[in-house]
Fold these 2 entries.
Entry 1:
Amino acid sequence: MFEVNVPQGVRPGQAFALIANGQRVMVTCPANARPGQKIRFQLPIKLSSDEIQSIKLNYQKDGWMRCLSTDLSFHWVRSDCDNDVEASSRDALWAFERIAFVRELRSLAPSGTSKPAHSLQLVPAKDAALSTVVPAINNGTSLAQELSRYAAMPFQHKEAWFRQQIAKLQVPWEDGHIKINVRRENLLEDSMEATESITQADMRKIFRFEFISEPGVDAGGVAREWFQLVSDTLFNPDFALWSYSSINQMCMQINPSSGIANDEHLRYFHFTGRLLGKALFDRQIVAGHLVRPLYKHILGWPVTVADLEQLDADTYTNLCKLKDLDDVEVCCLDFTVTEDHWGTARTVELKPDGASCTVTNTNVDEYIQLQMRYRLLDRVREQVKALLVGFYDVVPEALLSVFDFQELELLLCGLPEIDIQDWRRNTE
């Protein structure tokens, strides 16, 4: 049990970070407490000082790190919050570089329903929370201590622990398994229909695949071919669900106009989430690399203004240039964005009556935050929501918290094989 004075500026019900016994924790100010008043709280777990330092270093990416709250959930705090100094008013104006949001996915209906509804929004990173409870493991007790410990370990140890947890979730063969039959000439449609017909409870059963009219026993090779071929087709930009990253044609981002090209696009994005989740669950590799913001959304990591570059490099560059202007009004900007939907220009207001609101030095920070919200989530909200729900149909979100976004990409896509001789032969 610890005792602490409520810091100045903290309101009742607001969470604040502190160091207790060398461990960073989040504490919520009680409803009846005021700044300067003493409150008591209990330290949730016990770790050695070396483990604590490792966790801080491991989570310290983009200026943010996770810490454990007294309610045994993870919260995000700025890693440099202890070193904050009084900034000039001009520096404070451009604090957008330190702004981060975390997607919040909430179920709006009981999990027992056939198709529970969900809501998805971006919340400030400091307000985001992640439960450390996996209902199907350890009788629903918190995995906080294990998650904290393994998050600090080398990648190989993380993966080994993750596989142990997956083994607890996998349904034994004798308790039921799934057989998926597909036609090679109609591979994507057959695969989507088959996978979408499976209940969430059955997604953790062992899958066996068969290409119709091709006799053979799936001892692993057919499954590998299925994951490779389906993901290769699914992430092909010609199918119009995905498009290339603005800075890297190795990575794919969601096509905001996917609904125009495909009436069933949300079913395909839900299928994509299940495909990626099942590949991770079954130790398979998929063909498509995603842009960094999508990996962050899957993990519930903070997205920052720098993540915009992978989605729209021009917009990111122009937003950064605003910092060098003495008066942003010379740009004649308003609170709108213009989108190209298959050759048709469409204007979207970033806030009510945004077309008549000029961007000034006073409201430029709000403008950048609204640009971040729109481009990082709002314009592809339904697609991202479908993908996340499909992914978590297979892999519990809490188990992913030991990985960072680069490690998740490595697990899903593996290491690339580069033929240096082929590269030399075809390079001028």
Entry 2:
Amino acid sequence: MRLSRRGGLRLAVVCAVAALAACSPPRSRGVECVAPANPGGGWDLTCRAAGQVMSELSLVPGLVRVTNLPGAGGAIAFAHAVAKRAADENVLFAASPATTLRIAQHQFGRFTENDVRWIGAVAADYGVVAVNPASPWRSLQELVEAWKADPSKVVVGGGSAVGGQDHMKMLVLARATGMDPRSVRYVPFDGGGEATTALLGNFIQVFSGDASEIRGLAESGSVRILAVLSLARIGPPFESVPTAIEQGIDVAWIAWRGFYAPPGISEDAFGRWSLVVTTVGASPAWARLRKERGLDAFFLSGPQFESFVRAEVLRLRELSRELGLIQ
């Protein structure tokens, strides 16, 4: 999946310290960020990292409370936003292409992209392919050769549901190498943390996830990264890892990280949240944290982001049809 990199954003609307109260969410109670998976994955990281900066910059009252609400590839959290928190102006839900992909595949039941308010994106992450350090495969090409020889012996795991983002990465990778995507054996987990635990325990042979999810394990040498699915090499601790493109496989998967809000919030609240996200994205504090977590720049907010999401759903729906995931 390819997204144009947006390193800059016209940010004349950054809150001045004296005006922060005017652009903050309602202060009747604390702010909550819901991560639609267990701790350790990309959604969890999005809530905790962005929430930290929101609090540091006094954009919200007090600390941002993070709630993990896993299940059905994000569908449980999405339904919760629509049915249980519809008018709650003090909660955000973490989102990524995993969210829009499941919507595109009609995996959220009767709910669609039009049932929530899309607030903004604050960063981009990159797909990775990793194996246990004891694995015999030392390059993506070696993995592909073994995979092609006997697909039944290579079990892939990721933090998304079947047909979700982590599964889709491997289907796209398989297709690019001439394999039948239907031969991919994929095991879903509720978040990247569970998937990496399965990799270290040798319950799966290959991990499909994002760089931010596996950063700590890469730094400690607990996993071997075979490829980063970016357009060019990324920074530490992945600087020595070649991209799939460098290894002759034309696949990139760039995952934006952002937020949606319940459908019944007021236009004032939508505007305030959009400004909060914009301010986070423009801040030196976020730039530092982004670098520490291995995230790249990608910023959109408000109506612009809503239009982007709707176009993204249509594009991912077509890709899902091409791969035989939906009719």
